[in-house]
């Protein structure tokens, strides 16, 4: 493994920054303390900043020996999750119901230190924009920054993202060209029937049985309408109806999520869901209110930029430690919005299995969005090295 020496010397400082952010988690669009820390740290290192994109977003502007015509963006997310931390170690969350359970604290620390190195060495010709983005966890902060002018104020030829990945060993990277993460979408189906006495169902229109029929029929979209080689998930995660055992309610509500790797498959599923819900309800004498909300599109890596990133990773950790055909996940990521506008690549860096956690961690596994999760500080020099090598090699092409 070829790590840049300054990051080994800065390890304790990097860890202190990461753990300070972990101890003070802030939810989407509330990341004022985190944004202040990022901005003040960058300015301390002589890096100009721009604030306010996406509300609490920060962009560090790093110029090389000469600004040049080329520029790239390196992105880290800064928000936490609305969940309770189970860990009790010293840097555990100090705010009930808020936790850095996805490693955004580590992502921020890695990019901060990469920015420091790039600003000090200036071993490139061009401009690097260090993008510290709010509200990844369901708030679409990437799109909000774009709507506020990210790519018009800071034009760039490519943009890159990185996320820690539990289960992937420390020292390994995972990436694939094309879809690497799924789209995230939520739906709600309200069935409106005619309530009545449970002993006299013939006098009413039962929304519960209608909902059951719809739920069963929706799964035929996956098994009979979707192309067998196109991955998709349709999960009904909630059904709510009724208040008493002898009362047929007036309505029933179902909700859930749909995940796909392509927008074409998503279009098909949304259209068929609406048709199935409406016609099944009509056959039962009921009516439906169908809503479908597209939250995040699929994260789709561009082939040329992915091949470039693979070369960078192999230079640092060797061929055997890079999986360039990693199995994608149906989890979602709002970096997808950036990749829809600018070519780029999103990679995973191994976070290990949890052996790194100090005493005081909870009993659960060290997985993302788990109350016992903690970012692995051993990744800090490796992730920062990757960012630096990516930037330097990009401008050598």
Automatic annotation (TrEMBL):
The keyword Metal-binding applies. It comes from the Bacteria. Keywords: Hydrolase, Manganese, Metal-binding. The keyword Manganese applies. Mn(2+) binds at residues 102, 104, 137, 163, 369. SUPFAM superfamilies: Bacterial exopeptidase dimerisation domain (SSF55031), Zn-dependent exopeptidases (SSF53187). InterPro entries: Amidohydrolase (IPR017439), Bact_exopeptidase_dim_dom (IPR036264), Peptidase_M20 (IPR002933), Peptidase_M20_dimer (IPR011650). GO terms for molecular function: hydrolase activity; metal ion binding. Pfam families: M20_dimer, Peptidase_M20. The Mn(2+) ion enhances activity. Residues 186-281 form the Peptidase M20 dimerisation domain. Its cofactor is Mn(2+). Belongs to the peptidase M20 family. NCBIfam families: amidohydrolases (TIGR01891). This is Amidohydrolase. It comes from Zwartia hollandica.
